[in-house]
Amino acid sequence: MKNLKVILILIICSSAIQAQDTIDFKYSRDYAKILALTKKDTSGLFFPDLYKRFAAADTTLTNYEVLALQIGYTDNDNYWPYQDIEMEREIWGLNEQKKYKEAIMTCDTLLRKNPFNLLACREKGYGLDKMGQIDSADYYFYKFDKIVTCDFSTGDGTSYETSWFVISPADGQWIIKLALQGSICFMGSGRDKDRNFHDILGYHPDEEDQKSEKKENSSDCMHLYFNIQHAAKRMFGKEGIKPVGNEAIDSISVTTVRRNESDRIIAFSL
């Protein structure tokens, strides 16, 4: 019965995406083609043109166009996603300590490096919201919504073949906690038949009557797949230094998800 709840949540999420703009996206087939188009000024996916619309909070941007933006950025000189993980944790911690101004400043630093950083968009929105700057907060929640909706539209996340595209190696963990409002009950990784690298994370819905269970041994621990091949290529940064370990973000207390404080805080209330 509990496993059925997990499946139903994912079905609802998938149905919502299909009603909007599902992408026929196969990483090995399409990634390089889309990347090339983002560099061609005569294509409809030219990165500078799409980015202007994203920065202007253009609600007509399709999931395919947001995917092109993310793919285009993976070739940017500032794209070193593993080196951003430590700053993501710092941002979360500052907001938990109610140091909203400091959190917003740190978000700005990270967003200058990577304007598609999922956690920075979400947490800057949260900080602005707590400071009463609702319109500004909604702008960043819009970006969070756009990116997560796009990522969900790239597959159903249940296999290597239908893995969700994410731009950063920690995005799968943040999506489980913040969009699916669940806990991480398993962490692994693997490569598909084309040798693309994927995070494999166990998703478990957060419910009061389940918090005492050993979730890693539960049949409700549903494995979700996140394609991070593009990030893995840049794992060691410009200096070739091994990044800080990407241990489970789920070590952050479930009580800090803050999902009930405002309907602007969580993009996907399932």
Beta strands, count: 4
Low-pLDDT ranges? 15-19, 208-214, 248-270
- The 3D shape can be described as globular
- How far the N terminus sits from the C terminus, by CA atoms, comes to 18 Å
Which radius of gyration do the C-alpha atoms yield? 18 Å
Number of domains: 1
Question: Please, could you describe this protein's structure?
Answer:
The two termini are 18 Å apart. This protein has one domain. It is built from ten helices and four strands, in the order H-H-H-H-H-H-H-H-E-H-E-E-E-H. It is an alpha+beta fold and 270 residues long. A hairpin with a 5-residue loop joins strand 2 and strand 3. The C terminus is likely disordered. Helix content is 44%, strand content 10%. The radius of gyration is 18 Å and the shape is globular. The longest helix is centred in the middle third of the chain and has 19 residues. It has a four-stranded mixed beta sheet with strand order 1-4-3-2, sandwiched between helices.
Summarize the structure.
By secondary structure, the chain is an alpha+beta fold. It is 44% helix and 10% strand.
What are the key terms here?
4-stranded mixed β-sheet; 4 strands; 270 residues; 44% helix; disordered C terminus; alpha+beta
Task: Provide the fold topology.
Elements: H1 2-18, H2 27-38, H3 47-55, H4 63-73, H5 85-96, H6 100-113, H7 118-130, H8 134-152, E1 164-165, H9 171-179, E2 182-191, E3 197-205, E4 222-227, H10 229-232
Parallel strand pairs: 1-4
Antiparallel strand pairs: 2-3, 3-4
